[in-house]
Amino acid sequence: MRRFRNVCAFLLTAVTAVALTACGGGGDTAENADGPVTFTWWHNGTTDTRKAVWEQIAADYQAANPGVSFKIEPVQNEQFQTKIPLALQSDSPPDIYQQWGGGNGKGQLPSGKVADITEQTSPWIGSLGPIAQDWADGGKQYGVPYVGHTVGFWYRKDIFANAGITTPPATMEQLNEAVAKLKAAGVAPIAIGGKDRWPDAFYWGYLATRHCAPEELKKAVETVRMEHPCWLRAGQDLKAFLDTQPFQPGFVGTPAQQGAGSSAGLVANGQAAMELQGDWDPDTMSALTSDKDLNSKLGWFPFPAVAGGEGAPGAVLAGGDGFSCTKRAGAACAKFLQYLTSTPVQEKLAAVGAGLPVNPAAAQALTTDSLKSVFEYTQQAPHRQTYFDIALPTSVGQALNDAIANFFAGQGTPETIVQAVNSAAAGNK
């Protein structure tokens, strides 16, 4: 799946200071934060580097909070979709588990095992901004994000300059003109990892966000119905864009992030000019090339405006990574999640490229001007649209992604994308 990178180990001193000041709270239906507790913690950091990061965090927190210990179980990201529902039906679910919020998270609430941590988080959750609402439902908080992500175009400034493109495209018309210039210069205009399917959804999702007013976006997610004409217009614009053949040859079989031949690798090694991806892309690219100056060659621009669109100008397609707690130690878990969002820890996350900090005070630790631009653009955006496959119920979001991927592969129509959502929603009731 998407949005996950390797990060380096944290320094002990800063995070220990934070742990000493992390706030607890009274229990709701969960155990109180006071007293000894051993957390069972499921996260998706399965690489050696990611495992080391979370182990260090746990060790630092444990050192500063006597009586707290951790039993950590890394889980492959793709396995969460099946493991978590089964765990929530059991008598021993993990105390802390990776969670991406939205409709996925709401679908877990009927289990009765997810802790309501509203009381513990209410004094500070508002400082994280609108992203925290992805882990809330009905005015109650059921999880906390620790990093945010925003999608936009990452591009090679040197390749743009060689093709005579002096300004990043601001409209779809300008993007089409850039594609033509890049083709004439003999380079693939846009790389995409069609083999993994989820990168395709970014295009339809952004076109929908540009065409649909924020009120319609919210309504469609809440009702799980797409009836307004703006949804169809998104597919029609997507077809027109695909007809320009903007991607590398064989894009349907190209992976997104695995190896130098992936879409990220093509941009990193100068074989393609740009890629529509999240803020994690530069970090992903750097591992796929020997070019030590790559970061200085990369720029970022937001998804272009569309003609006649009713969406809020500057709206972003975004998501985040977070954790939820189960009830056995919910209050103590909430205390730990606050620790993850405090400034020193967030600065370390930002400095190693884990994502955009959910704590704005840590933004100064972002390491490149491009990432700082992404953060600032996100902060100023008039609307933040969560990835549709996350915002919608899991089965509906998957049906949408499948329909979009099939459309990229030449199957289906703009109408079938909308129909896939509405049909899946009807079957989900």
Automatic annotation (TrEMBL):
Keywords: Signal
UniProt signal peptide: 1-19
Keyword Signal assigned: yes
Keyword Signal set for record: yes
Pfam assignment, any one: SBP_bac_1
Identification of the protein by name: Sugar ABC transporter substrate-binding protein
Gene source species: Amycolatopsis albispora
Native organism taxonomy: Bacteria, Bacillati, Actinomycetota, Actinomycetes, Pseudonocardiales
